Amino acid sequence: MTTPTVFRSPAATPGERGLLLGRAFPDRIRRTADRYDALFLATGARPDQVAEAGVAALGQIARLAPELAEEIDGIARGAELPVHRIAALNARTEILGRYGRQHPECSTVVHAPADGRPPVTTQTWDWHDDLRDGWFVWQIEHPDGRVVRTVTEYGIVGKIGVNAAGLGLHFNILAHTSDTHTSDTHASDAHASDAHAADARTCGATGPEPGGGWLPVHVLARQLLDRCADVEAAAWLAMATPVAASSSLTLAGFADGRARAATVELSPAGPALLRPDADGYLLRTNHFVDPRLARGEALATEDPDTRDRLEALRTRTADRPRPDAQALLDALTLHLDQGAALCCHPDPGAALGKRWETLATVSLDVVAGRLAVHPGGPCTAHGTAWTVV
Predict the structure, then answer these.
(1) Exposure check for the chain: N or C terminus, fewer CB within 10 A?
(2) How far apart are alpha carbons 50 and 65 in whole angstroms?
């Protein structure tokens, strides 16, 4: 694998920022859109259904994150693609969740020590091998001085990332029985009014109105990095925002000499907030841990891989009470034939949509507001140069 592309957006309006990205990478954005169209079709979604989903997603984004709707429109104009195709990319988790399940995916390890040291974090991003060249690192400078750095896919506004205020975010897909009801009124709407006041205080931004639709999870991840400066603010905003697909957003920060971390489990049935264990570890794979939401678990019931990976992480972190980034990398270096696919390699004979690969390994430095990324899995990251942004 080659060194990842880093694109630095100068301070600009959202539409201008998207336009610059689209003009810089039109071929890569189009190729990513084409590959997702093939993946959507393999999952069972017809082109007309994908187009309809893209239009619907854009309407929701315009309502709940208008600045990111402008950015998506700019990307489409720059890449010379219909805006609904870029919106569908940003709603790819929702589309895939509606028409089929995604199985092997990411593993995340965050350690938030209680002794005054900052948190250490690392995750693998496992996805389809034909998208291994479909991602980049985006540094986004806002006109007011805010800076966001994210590892994301061409055409998608955000995923794993960190901001200059010191908020880090890791991303794991989940699956819930409620994911198939993307056009319904979601049970999580009820949480919006409860958390709205706290969201407005902590993020300094207006949260979604009760009954106000849903936001694609990748767009929500970027919104948290854009708007929030700490773990509690981001957790409130995430829990206040209705979604149409399930995901796990693991947040990390360091303030007043204290490491902080939390995971928000999101589903159309509602959110849940999880904290680190007594040893400071917050471990994530791809199934619900909250007991209420676990009753609707839809991925681990079909594939035990996610539970195997979580148990392997628990075992491999048990003897690392004061881990550094290298220790987390060591914990994640484990393959399927060793008991669990924390580091994932594709079966070349498998069909499209079934060839899973660790496309990137990402570590966040919340004190510096920077991220380090290695193109590939933990097994190839030892002793190699990482890209630091």
Answers:
(1) N
(2) 21
CB atoms within 10 A of CB 80: 11
Confidence band of 211 (pLDDT split at 50, 70, 90) = low
CATH: 3.30.980.10, 1.10.630.10, 3.30.70.920, 3.60.60.10. Which one for 107-388? 3.60.60.10
Residue 71 structure tokens: 């950015």
CA-to-CA distance for 186 and 31, rounded, in angstroms? 33
Report, in angstroms and rounded to the nearest whole number, the Rg of the chain calculated over CA atoms. Answer: 19
Q: Helix, strand, or coil here: 50? A: helix
In this predicted model, what pLDDT tens digit does every residue of 225-238 receive, in sequence order?
Answer: 999 999 999 999 99
Write out pLDDT tens, residues 215-272.
Answer: 999 999 999 999 999 999 999 999 999 999 999 999 999 999 999 999 999 999 999 9
> Cα angle vertex 378, ends 374, 383, to 5°?
70
Structural tokens at position 285:
């794979």
Indicate the length of the chain as a whole number. Answer: 389
Q: Output DSSP code: residue 216.
A: -
